[in-house]
Amino acid sequence: MKKIVIMSDNHGDQSMIDYVKEHEQDGDYYIHCGDSEAYDLRVLEGFICVKGNNDWSLDLPKEARLVVEGVSIFITHGQYFGYFNRELAMNDILTRNHCQVLISGHTHMPMFQKDGSFYYINPGSTTLPRGGSARSYAVLFIDNGKLDFRLKEIQK
């Protein structure tokens, strides 16, 4: 079984990166879905990171891929999905990239949704939640191809 710790949209609040690292020290993988607005990329050391729409000056990729226990994962910030037909666009990106799981941020609203054989995951925002959600990050466990998602509220 592998543990994947996922965060997004801390918008310059480095203490949230430290908080997640401190509370999830046993992660096998750490993912940041963008809009870290990190002033120094060393704070994201150990994370698989993608560039968010507010990470103008950061030299990060727009997307990343990861395979964990045979499960293929596509990581992006999510600003290109728009708000109309969002799930259709997410389904398309997974299909084109031969992936099963999409991990993204941008909306600041947590999501764990299964659509056929696809999974859509958003950890929410650690600093600026929207839609009535709490400040959060996520933990995803993958065990022999089975996914177990846990949303973690920031207790700070």
TrEMBL record:
Swiss-Prot/TrEMBL keywords: Metal-binding
Cofactor(s), names only, from the UniProt record: a divalent metal cation
Superkingdom of source: Bacteria
Protein name: Phosphoesterase
PANTHER family: VACUOLAR SORTING PROTEIN VPS29 (PTHR11124)
Family: Belongs to the metallophosphoesterase superfamily. YfcE family.
Domain Calcineurin-like phosphoesterase, first and last residues per copy: 3-144
InterPro entries in alphabetical order: Calcineurin-like_PHP_lpxH (IPR024654), Metallo-depent_PP-like (IPR029052), Phosphodiesterase_MJ0936/Vps29 (IPR000979)
Species name: Massilimicrobiota timonensis
EC annotation from Swiss-Prot or TrEMBL: 3.1.4.-
Enzyme class: hydrolase
